[in-house]
Amino acid sequence: MKPASLDLISAQETSSRLGISRASLYAYVSRGLIRSFASPHDPRQRLYALDDVEALVKRRTQFRRPTAAAATALDWGLPVLETALTQIKDGHLLYRGVDAVDLAETAPLEDAACLLIGDIAADAFALPSPPISPLAGPALGSQGFVSQAIHLLSEQASENRQHPNREIATILRLMAAAGSGADPGIMPLHRHLASSWNVSAEAADAIRRALVLCADHELSASAFAVRVAASTGASLRNAVIAGLAALSGPLHGGATDHMRAFLEECDDRGGRAPSQSKAFPSFHHPLYPEGDPRGATLVKDLPLRAIDAAILRESEHAGEGPTVDAGLVMMERAYDLPRGAAFALFAIGRTAGWLAHAVEQRQQATLIRPRARYVVAQDKAFP
């Protein structure tokens, strides 16, 4: 279904703007570069998303101007480094060629971590880690979780380079402990979290699925921060701390806090959803024109609250779907997980990907150090 605010143009105009043939246009559509919709006036005619066409024109111009391309590469722009970890292709999220949605059907986070990291022993998570210091309790929500996780990761600053598999397992367990307030031991992390949060077996399986779906997302802001830190030779723990700091921002993992506040505001209004879908946060992702598969998987078969179900219906009517942020918060509410558990799940799951990015960056043995283009500052009044 076409989003209500999307402008559409004909095949002739699309081909003309791009300077391509009809055959090339159809190839662009099949590769997911341009969205195509049936005409409301003639079902035999296809119309094309103007936003996608203009983005392709802009990208083509950037390729012809290397300086301009470099200047915009860091803002949803051109690829800036190579990775064998994760690919977003044709609306699918792939971990080393394996569809993340399919993997999440049965696999625990530990299996996703082994898949992403690659060079790790199968029994890495069967061995115990050093005991974790007693905690006062779980720390949830973006700021609380980040503070507790950094504290745990910083307790032992040196890296266990003689036993890298144990170090990887220890880091994941420290992250889970930040969200649960207890030492996971060698228990699978989703079961440990479910037990600590005292939730049902159904919720435990949803937690497992969420952790796997959050494991990686190509070169997200936090993964890039991890790779920059790792490229300097920083320890795995400090690289993960860099990822945590980036994840905490409201434009990244901290968007779960915004989504929760929105839903709780709807609760306060007596369960009335806004009539305008564009008021909904976390219902569009630039990398998934047809909808975020992670969010769709997370909300599937959930025992949703009435207001959450109503918002999903409104978003579907507008041609939008829930992102992973919305899915995590709706899952938190559906199973009465502790308030703020959505961010903890995001961070714990994403740690598997951060570790994989750090290991891959170390193997590339290059320092990430881009150059800045100096511009003359405008006159400003400083206090």
TrEMBL record:
Gene3D superfamilies: Citrate Synthase, domain 1 (1.10.580.10), Cytochrome P450-Terp, domain 2 (1.10.230.10)
Alphabetically ordered keywords of this record: Transferase
The keyword Cytoplasm belongs to this UniProt entry's keyword annotation: no
Family statement drawn from the similarity comment of this UniProt entry: Belongs to the citrate synthase family.
InterPro entries the UniProt entry points to: Citrate_synth-like_lrg_a-sub, Citrate_synth-like_sm_a-sub, Citrate_synthase, Citrate_synthase_sf
Protein name: citrate synthase (unknown stereospecificity)
GO BP annotations, alphabetical order: carbohydrate metabolic process; tricarboxylic acid cycle
Source organism, top-level taxon: Bacteria
A GO molecular-function annotation: citrate synthase activity
EC number: 2.3.3.16
Coiled-coil annotated residue ranges, if any: none
Family annotation (Pfam families): Citrate_synt
Source species of the chain: Microvirga alba
Any Gene Ontology CC annotation: cytosol
UniProt pathway: Carbohydrate metabolism; tricarboxylic acid cycle; isocitrate from oxaloacetate: step 1/2
